[in-house]
Each structure stands twice: as structure tokens, then as C-alpha cells.
Amino acid sequence: MNDQEAPALEIRAVSHAFGARRALDDVSLTVPAGRFVALLGPNGAGKTTLFSLATRLYSTREGAVRIFGRDLASAPSAALAELGVVFQNRTLDLDLTVNQNLAYHGALHGLSGRPLKARISALLHLVGLADRLHEKVRTLSGGQARRVEIARALIHRPRLLLLDEATVGLDLSSRAAIVDIVRRLVAEDGLAVLWATHIFDEVHPEDDIYVLDKGRIIAHGTAGEVAGGHLAPARPEAEPVPEGGTAALEAAFRAMTAARAGDAA
Ligand SMILES: Nc1ncnc2c1ncn2[C@@H]1O[C@H](COP(=O)(O)OP(=O)(O)OP(=O)(O)O)[C@@H](O)[C@H]1O
């Protein structure tokens, strides 16, 4: 399979345990090139563990992770070159400016001089923060800092972006702005995205979703299919759908996880 045909991310039969606690159990999922895929799961489902394996923070002992066909264990540099990531926990240096944070990260990826400056400028325009270049990150709102993290994750032009609960703790309009930026990157730039969330209203009916619960994938399909076809259609503007519009997905999810809790009992 050549690089153009390979999925952006392939996770195959991955399991991971912390001592006796099995955090992931035989998880497989695929993010096709240029597509938005949501990973929906409650707290403790295993999302962050999966991201830690996909970014090689943890080594994969059971199963395989491939990024555009490159195996993360045997060809880590080639695989990670295609990957950008926004972690759940904030990792910007608050006492450096936006520019310094981005420039430092760009330098790690071998960028310097004019190309680096141009890249930072383009990315800050993309996330709507061009006027904050020389301000310390400490002065930004939570949503603005998140947008800087997205810019930073894209500095080396990855073709796959992983976001772990990127909107958690943000107000509705900041969440909407971030969802909008990410969906535009998919639609206009062909970026592939894995969007991990426990917030139902960030998912549109036509989105490809995987539902993760207690370390296992318990459902996969479009969000509309998983919700039994009762999900309200996405609105054309990329705001989260109003509360209640995703009630069917939430109800389906609760029914699935309750059934599993019953199985386990
Ligand atoms: N370093 C660790 N040591 C021990 N157990 C861990 C560790 N990291 C995660 N776990 C456990 O693994 C399971 C999955 O956790 P994980 O953080 O991956 O879930 P999550 O879906 O990202 O949840 P959240 O949204 O709350 O971050 C949980 O039971 C958690 O307690």
C-alpha cells in the first residue's frame, strides 16, 4: 500500500495495562486520510491512554499503531513526522509569548528564519490570534490558549491531528470557535483528525464515531447510526448542535454502557 492510500491512523488490536488495571482491551480504529473521526467516551474510558500510545509517550506492547502506513514501533520518526497533537493538559509556557512558544516548537522541527516566521503568522491568522503574537500566554483566555496549542501542533504541517478533550473547561463560544477551526482544517486543507470527547453535542450525525467504554470499543458507525437514526441534522454553521439535539446519541450511549455494566455484574 503506498502512502497516499494508507489511512492517516490505524490502531490495530491495541491493549494496555497499568499493573493489574486493563486500560485498553483489544482496541482497533481507523482514521481515513482527510477525515474527521470522533472518539466518544466518558472519563476513564481510556482515551488519554490511547493518545499516549499513538504519540509514543507509552510504547505499544500489544497491537500496532500505524500513521500513514508507517509503523510507530519500527519507524517512529517517519510516523511521528505526520502527527500533530493537542493534549488534554495544557503544555504551553505561560511566561513566554505566543511567538516564543511557537518559535521554540518550530525550531524543534527544524524550522528557522523567514519560513518559521511566515508559518507562525499563517497559523495565527488561521486560529484568529494574529494580533496576540507578542503577548505572554498567561494573558490569554483558556480558549485562546487552546487555539495557540492547535497552531503549535500544526507547525510542521502534519497530515494527522489528534485532539484529546480539546474543549474541556471552555465556555460555549470558545468551544464553538475551536470546533469550527478544526472542522475547517478537515474540509479545506484535507487534515485528518481524531477528536476525543465526552461531549455529545460536538458530534454531528454524519461523523464517523467510535464509542470507547472501560477500555473497549463498544460501537462504531456514523453518529446517526449509533444513535439509532434519531440524531438531529448538523446545522450548516459549525457550532455545537443545541442541547437536546444530541439526546438520542447520549441515550444510546447510556443504554450501551449500562448494558455492559449489567454484563460485568
Ligand atoms: N498512569 C496511570 N497509572 C495507573 N492507572 C492509570 C494511569 N493512567 C490512566 N490510568 C487508568 O486507566 C484508565 C483509563 O484512563 P484514561 O486517562 O486513559 O481515560 P480517559 O478516557 O482519558 O479519561 P479522562 O477523560 O478522565 O482523562 C482509568 O481507569 C485510569 O484510572
TrEMBL record:
Oxidoreductase in keyword set: no
Domain (ABC transporter): residue spans on this chain: 9-239
Keywords annotated in UniProt: ATP-binding, Nodulation, Nucleotide-binding, Transport
Keyword Nucleotide-binding in annotation: yes
Classification via PROSITE patterns: ABC_TRANSPORTER_1 (PS00211), ABC_TRANSPORTER_2 (PS50893)
Gene3D superfamilies: P-loop containing nucleotide triphosphate hydrolases (3.40.50.300)
SMART domains the UniProt entry points to: AAA
Entry superkingdom: Bacteria
Pfam families: ABC_tran
SUPFAM superfamilies in alphabetical order: P-loop containing nucleoside triphosphate hydrolases
Gene Ontology terms for molecular function: ATP binding; ATP hydrolysis activity
Protein family: Belongs to the ABC transporter superfamily.
Name of the protein this chain belongs to: ABC transporter related
